[in-house]
Specification:
This protein is an alpha/beta fold and 370 residues long. Helix content is 48%, strand content 17%. The radius of gyration is 24 Å and the shape is globular. The termini are far apart.
Length: 370
């Protein structure tokens, strides 16, 4: 059986750290907690779970802090988490089965990182992370903000899920300030730094500046394909928010340069034509999105709405707008299979059933055309 070190960096996490540590306590063989300057009860709480608590002088560099935490591990494999992450009992069971059978040739295990769930408990947004790594490979973290673990070798995919459960309701400007400080100091940004700096600007509604850094990122020609596609989508959104609607469409199409069409980009294009009431074009793109299968090997961020119910809901609107109520009803029902209690979908169902009943009283067939 493999052994596992849990390695974490924390700061002022008294509200969530006990929940995180309790969730993984049954599966890990040691807990390495590195505190970067807590002023609350974080250290006191952590000390109830492990004696391995270390202090790290914060230098505005997440990778350095994580590498320090990894340096303290002594077990076969390292599992890393954030303080507001948890593993459910079901996923702990899956990890236990993996731990019992894990071959020493495996260098890293991918796990799904669920960033949010809808009211039905289904993932709404996720991404895959190299979450469990073999310690002796000495993999290093890179990047002062939005750090990533640079791995290689034998990488195993798994169906284990780590869930992000933040209780914070407001977005922090911590990362943005770090980027702005490094930018003002003239620090050289890698392509990945440019991309994530743009994301921080976007998340804070600074769309003109975000657009500039997304463009700088893409012009390097050195970005990861998933980041390139996401950058095109974010550029499309920036242009939309800035009133540059034709450019918004251009950037959505530009994403196809990097890979086959993705459902979220097809939905963006469909929305563009919907806003212009160009129903046939909107229908084409939403139907395209509805027919795409989520690639199993895809490791980038996944917006599940665009791969499941959203295209069908929008097709309901499009078909209803041109009087094709039977098709509208069909797609609304498909949307309802994913979201059975959604008020919008239930409203559409009631409306369309009323329309169908009225038409059936006077017309025997649904052949209403625009």
């Amino acid at each position: 059986m493999a052994t596992i070190s849990l390695c974490m960096i924390v700061r002022n996490e008294e509200e969530t750290i006990a929940r995180c540590l309790a969730s993984v306590q049954p599966i890990v063989d040691e807990m390495i907690i590195v505190d970067t300057g807590s002023s609350d009860r974080t250290i006191e709480i952590v000390s109830e779970f492990t004696p391995h608590v270390y202090h790290f002088q914060w230098i505005d560099d997440f990778a350095e802090a994580r590498n320090f935490s990894f340096s303290k591990a002594t077990m076969d494999y390292i599992l890393w988490l954030d303080a507001d992450d948890i593993l459910s009992a079901d996923n702990i069971h899956k990890l236990m089965l993996l731990k019992n059978a894990l071959d020493a040739s495996v260098d890293s295990v991918l796990m799904k990182y669920v960033l949010g769930r809808d009211e039905y408990g289904k993932p709404s947004y996720s991404v895959k992370r190299n979450r469990l790594v073999r310690r002796e490979r000495d993999f290093k973290w890179k990047g002062f903000v939005h750090e990533y673990l640079e791995v290689g070798g034998n990488i195993m995919d798994s169906d284990i899920e780590v869930e992000h459960r933040s209780i914070k309701t407001t977005a922090s400007d911590r990362n943005l300030k770090i980027y702005e400080k490094h930018d003002a100091d003239g620090k050289r940004f890698t392509p990945r730094d440019l991309y994530y700096y743009a994301n921080e600007l976007y998340d804070h509604g600074l769309y003109k500046r975000a657009k500039r850094y997304y463009l700088r990122f893409l012009r390097t020609g050195q970005g990861w394909v998933e980041d390139n596609i996401q950058a095109c989508g974010k550029l499309s959104d920036c242009c939309h928010f800035l009133g540059e609607h034709d450019k918004s469409l251009d950037w959505a199409f530009r994403s196809f340069h990097y890979d086959a069409p993705r459902a979220d980009l097809c939905c963006r294009i469909g929305y563009y034509f919907m806003q212009k009431k160009q129903w046939d074009r909107s229908i084409f793109w939403y139907k395209t999105a509805s027919r795409l299968d989520l690639p199993k090997e895809m490791q980038g961020f996944v917006n599940y709405a665009c791969w499941t119910w959203l295209p069908h809901l929008q097709l309901c609107v499009c078909y209803s707008s041109i009087g094709k109520f039977e098709l509208a009803y069909e797609h609304n029902e498909l949307a309802r299979t994913y979201r059975p209690d959604d008020p919008r979908i239930l409203h559409n169902k009631d409306y369309l059933e009323t329309v169908r009943a009225s038409l059936n009283q006077g017309v025997t067939a649904f052949e209403v055309t625009p």
